[in-house]
Amino acid sequence: QVQLVESGGGLVHSGGSLRLSCAASGFRVSSNDMGWFRQAPGKERELVASILTSGITSYADSVKGRFTISRDHAANAVYLQMNSLKPEDTATYYCNVRGGRPNYWGEGTLVTVSS
Fold first, then answer.
1. Which of 5, 37, 61, 66 is the most exposed place for a label (fewest CB within 10 A)?
2. pLDDT tens string 96-110
């Protein structure tokens, strides 16, 4: 059974940093294109960062230059380093395969950025 557990969220001031973690079980993150998504209140869930099996990364324009996605094959985990956080980054963050497989969604981790 596939399980994705996100952690590392919290309350941070504008300009601060957080590192999110996503622990995977039931499948190998190294064998899948992975992504970090976020959903702000009243908005659609959006893909903010992805890492392909090749290691190529891509980012939404809104986070480019501030967020970095990475993965650890041994830990079977994916990470999102978030720097220079802004109030508009406030959202619940989720990891999933890049296409967002419906039955893989976890509970997410809440990030709140105060101004």
1. 61
2. 999 888 999 999 999
